[in-house]
Amino acid sequence: MCRKVIGALALVVAMVGMPGQSLAHGITGSAAGKNTWEFIPLGIEHMLLGWDHLLFIAGIVLLAGELKRAAKLISVFVVGHSTTLIIATLAGWKLSATLVDVVIALSLVFVGVVGWIGRPQKWRWFAASVLGFGLVHGLGLSTRLQDLGLPESGLLWRVIAFNVGVEIGQLIGIVIMVVLGRVFARLIKWDKAPKLANGGLVAAGIVAAIVLSVLSVFAPAPPADAYAAGCSVKTRTETFKGEGNHPPKDFYEPSETAPESDFGHVAGDGYLVVQYSGLSEAQVGQLRTFITGPDGQKVVGGLKQGQAEQIKAINAYDTMSCEKFDLESLKKFADKWLTDPRSKSAEG
């Protein structure tokens, strides 16, 4: 593929892909109610709106200079971001979206600088770098996907479908860029276009990293009662059967039967009752540490068989339901309730 074509292509994309357009992963709403097939268009949408990913691909193609080498490097990138997308989502790993976006922005700077200097004589180190950035891109994809809220059942197939959509969106983006590149190659007869395109990638990456960093520092802090996507609070409708007493202990393991009548008793005394379902061993450990630690005073918890939500926190008046395990939202809900005067008056 002609270097001028790709140079013109990358120049155009870099110019229109400045922040926040290039970093505006504009998918919103909830994915909890979507079936497996609906995750494919969700992945396509995410990729086409994620110009930071497409700009990185454009830089790789520009630097490769030939179709076969570009295909190999893009395949390495796909392996990287597919691996972390699937593993991180299934494990529930979430990183700071801003931090991931800054690293992705710096990946544009990296590929632009390498392209400006000239093609590597040895490609293995560059392929290893592409793999590393692919792993980071995958973490970004996973974080964005988890922010939409995911169903508990059939998660693996949904993540795979989302990844298929990402690859389809990536292919669509590459085709569009190649077509635009051929058009602009006819209009721009300039030998230095590829070098200017690499400069555009560097500029876009630097500006994006600076803007994201500044915004993260000066952005207003969310209110104390702000909960993550996938968590909602409503007036309590849950009831507990039986009279009950104070439970013998605060936390009940997945292998144990939680005494719901006792939970109902202490809920009336101003306690917070946490019911969980479908958590991993690590998540159970985190929940146990919170409830039995100093921050979990007047909080009890146990497994709730058949519960659709992974976390449900119930006090005397309200219920917070979280489709996915979110310890920070649980802590905020607990803190808000235990500092509410009604939690004291509920003690009778």
From TrEMBL:
Residue intervals passing through the bilayer: 48-67, 74-93, 99-118, 125-143, 155-184, 196-219
Basic and acidic residues compositional bias, start-end: 239-252
Position of the signal peptide: 1-24
Coiled-coil ranges per UniProt: none
Region (Disordered): 239-258
Keyword Transmembrane helix: yes
Record Pfam families: HupE_UreJ_2
Matches recorded under InterPro entries: Put_HupE_UreJ
Protein name: HupE/UreJ family protein
